[in-house]
Amino acid sequence: MASPCRSPGPIRNAHSVVTPGRCLPVKFVPPVVSRTTLRPPPRRQLTPHKLRHTAASLAIASGADVNVVQTMLGHKSATLTLDVYGHLFPDRLDEVSRKMHKRRAMILAKAQAKADKAERKARKAAEELAALTAAEGLPA
After folding, report:
1. pLDDT tens string 75-130
2. At 4, is the secondary structure helix, strand, or coil?
3. Which residues pair with 4 in a beta bridge?
4. pTM here?
5. For 7-138, where are the E strands, in sequence order?
6. In b/e form, how buried is each residue of 29-52, taking b as 16+ CB within 10 angstroms?
7. Residue 112: CA atoms inside 13 Å, Cβ hemisphere, count?
């Protein structure tokens, strides 16, 4: 049923639906789809292009990153994939902001602990110096 496909991308031409390394002639798509529970809405034709777009959308919704979708669709660049499907990728600004805030708080806490330690060390050195000068009777 499927023949070897020489195309690097998922769609070879208007007459074939391509899976990795195989071409499936479009004439086989309707019988395959009709055997599934997938039913297109009335007055809408289910096309290989719509199936391809649906597969990409489902992959993104399942957590696939840009490079996975790019490879799956055979796009030459991630930019092309993002131009077409970028609106489907989840907005992660809140997650990134929380992680940045947590990291910043951790770094500030470490810096404060280091400054406190340096201050204690300086205070101890000053006390030792004052004790030495007092013991020898030198002016402070």
Report:
1. 999 999 988 888 888 777 788 889 999 999 999 999 999 999 999 999 999 999 88
2. strand
3. 22
4. 0.43
5. 16-19, 22-25
6. beeeeeeeeeeeeeeeebebeeeb
7. 6
